[in-house]
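FIELD: query
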Amino acid sequence: MAGIHITDIEAAINHWRDKKPSPDGVTLAAEVRALAEVYALMVFYREQEADEFSMPAEAMAAWLAWYESTPDTPCIAICSTSQGDEMCKGCGRTFDEVQLWTEMRPAEKRQTWRRITLEGQAWRFNRYAERAQGDAAERLEAPLPAAA
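FIELD: result
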């Protein structure tokens, strides 16, 4: 059973706070309120994950809407599982996770994202992340084209 990690609940709350800010600093949007109730119970009971199947419908709908705003797959199109590796060097997913990705539920995908992010060993987090940061820095340092 896949659980929804507390950090995903926090991220969803922050997503909705940005999307629907409080008009008076006190009133919360329905999505924030629904997720905040789940978050408060998790903190009170010192739980790290919420059960995706028993989450209140309003909170689950708000979480799923946030989930839709996140990247679906960690794939960087360098799949070493096709070369026989059990763990992909590019994205960090296991062979089974790569093969079954389209069949996985959102909570299962987020668990995989969390694991590979915490491990930080996949090329998407080091070799190719550094290259992307270098390209971004070069673009910032490049002179602007002259106006026509």
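FIELD: remark
The chain has a mean pLDDT of 90.
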